Amino acid sequence: MTPRLVVATVALLVLPGAVEAQDSLRLVFAPLRGVTVHRAFQSHTLMTMTGADSSGRPVTVSREVADLGAMSQVSMPRSDGAQVVHLQYDSLRFRARGQAGSWHEVVVPDPERRWVQARVDSHMRLLEIIGGGQHQSAGLLVHLLTGVPGLVLPVGWVHSGDRWNAQLEFPLGDIVGAEPTGLMPRTLRARAAFSVDSVSARPRDTLAYVSFVGSYLPQSLTAADGRTAQFAGALRGTLVWSTGWRSVVSAATRSRVQFTVTGPGTGSGASQGQVTLETTIRQAVVP
Q: Is the whole model's pTM more than 0.85, yes or no?
């Protein structure tokens, strides 16, 4: 996984306006009003379930799902002066396969009907969801906007080598999809350490290459039938921030979540099985 995605490099050749390059920068989300930004993305999840059949023999089942497409964002003022970002899909495909079989793909018709309007402050904090299309996949749009799900930008200037810690809210439900077992939380909280690996000054732009590693906070969830799931895992990734675009221009996040299910019918606290979710999200601004 590399932070210097080729598509981001191409995109930076057509910045929306000239800016003065520098060897330090502030990570401030300040999109130009009325300027549409297009992003290409893909989200891939491998789900592996291990357990036992009725005779007690071990069984492993796997399934892969992926969302691929493009989205657009445009910032516009509200009547009360607040800054609102309109996000919508320009194209969207769902892909799925089980046990390493053939991929089955569905092209979503009228993808622009899956949209969200969000109010986000200069530090990328999500303040309010104004409205949105009535589709679950629309929730992924906000997390593509931020580059790293739940990212909150640091205050002040940053230089190469700077570090900061943050708590993230990883939108597991939005990214994985439906909750077939009733034991999958909508959001997982994580602690992460961010590092500015380098700052690259250019004639019209300054780029910050940032990486992070983190781990999920312990969490459990109990379903109506009495089963309980205990969650653990880790995540890491990279992103590129641009002062020209005033936003993240490319990002890649990898997450690994494992949960063990216990409950009725398995004895006192005995395990019913384990589920591992390995998710990779990649996205970049395109001209």
A: no
